[in-house]
Amino acid sequence: MNIGIIGSGHIGGNFGLHLAKAGHQVMFSSRHPEQLADLVRQAGSNAQAGTIAQAADSGSLVVLSIPYGKIPEVAEQVGTFVHGKTLIDTCNAYPQRDGEIAERVRQNPDLRETQLTVDSFPMASVVKALNTIYFVNLRDYAFRPEGSRYALPIAGNRETAKKEVTDLLHEIGFDVLDVGSIADSKVMEVDQLFYNKPMSLQEMQKAAGSR
Ligand SMILES: NC(=O)c1ccc[n+]([C@@H]2O[C@H](COP(=O)([O-])OP(=O)(O)OC[C@H]3O[C@@H](n4cnc5c(N)ncnc54)[C@H](OP(=O)(O)O)[C@@H]3O)[C@@H](O)[C@H]2O)c1
């Protein structure tokens, strides 16, 4: 599959490396694509670097891994390229980094962080994923054999998109727990049940069941 990565930092970079290793064609992007040469070299022949627009356009699935506060701005720039595609949202709302837009969602328990992405990319199928895992664990705990894998929660409003993301995460060696729709994704948000808590699928299912 062709996969475009918007934001090739700690999460986008490591996820892209795993996807390239799994055999996908990955386009890493940056506002300064020339600075991605080392990452592309590390990823090997399945990867290249481009602009944010090129990554959004070339991917049949797109990964959004940027500071939360920048989501509307990036959607303005490249939203049209993501129409009809699955968009993985790894972004977390941190008021100290992202300002008022994050403060608002943190203060209101009825709002969901990822609703900003859904609203900013209305023609994409947004799946919240990879936002709960610390990048070091993403880097170091992929491609584990069955029986010793970590699980990652996902949430989204479209089943076909969640299936696509589940398959990708399985390919790179993670189990997956589908927590439901975006409305159900509170458990994945900063400081909530599944945030930065490495767990097996069984542990995650147990934690979800005992809520
Ligand atoms: N770090 C973690 O362990 C972790 C874990 C889970 C989720 N997250 C979340 O995932 C997202 C990415 O985190 P990260 O740690 O990977 O961040 P990061 O290493 O700082 O990378 C973020 C990337 O976003 C790009 N970016 C920044 N401003 C932009 C803009 N205005 N337009 C387009 N691209 C922009 C930057 O690319 P260029 O400067 O090259 O353009 C940068 O490489 C954040 O929302 C974070 O909260 C982080």
From TrEMBL:
Q: Which domain of life is it from?
A: Bacteria
Per UniProt, residues of the Pyrroline-5-carboxylate reductase catalytic N-terminal domain are: 3-92
What Pfam families has UniProt attached to this entry? F420_oxidored
Instruction: Give the matching InterPro entries.
Output: NAD(P)-bd_dom_sf, P5C_Rdtase_cat_N, STEAP_metalloreductase
Q: Which UniProt keywords apply?
A: Oxidoreductase
* GO MF annotation: an example: oxidoreductase activity
The protein's name in its UniProt record = NAD(P)-binding domain-containing protein
Q: Mind giving the lineage of the organism this protein is from?
A: Bacteria, Pseudomonadati, Bacteroidota, Cytophagia, Cytophagales
